[in-house]
Fold this sequence. Notes:
It is a single chain. By secondary structure, the protein is mainly α. The chain has one domain (about 15-120). It contains 5 helices and 2 strands, in the order H-H-E-E-H-H-H. The chain has helices at about 15-40, 50, 75-80, 100-105, 105-120; strands spanning about 55, 65-70. Helix 1 (about 15-40) crosses helix 4 and helix 1 (about 15-40) runs antiparallel to helix 5 (about 105-120).
Amino acid sequence: MGVRATVTMTNNFGAITDQIRHRLVEGENKAAERGMALAVDRSPWDQGTLAASHTVERATNPEDGAAIVVDTPYATRLHEHPEYNFSTDSNPNAQGKWVENAIVENKAELGDIIRQEVRGG
């Protein structure tokens, strides 16, 4: 003769996980927007076309992430050649690798934006 007990638990983990994932996506999007603003501040500036072409492709799920896009035919060439002598007449912060440098040098701030959003704002 034995005793048997069945223990079950009802949980809401799925809904909680969905909320966290949603907040993570929002955090990625907010961090990308801030990163874009930091990058524009460092972009070479002649007539403003390059600076105006910065956009954010918003994340829809955490696996994809948000992206900063600079969409001009010459953006990659300028970005990937920091040895160019960028004029600082219009923008004293102009430099090559402006997107990469802005993100790397401000990764703590951008990480804080994501963490704050995941924690509930």
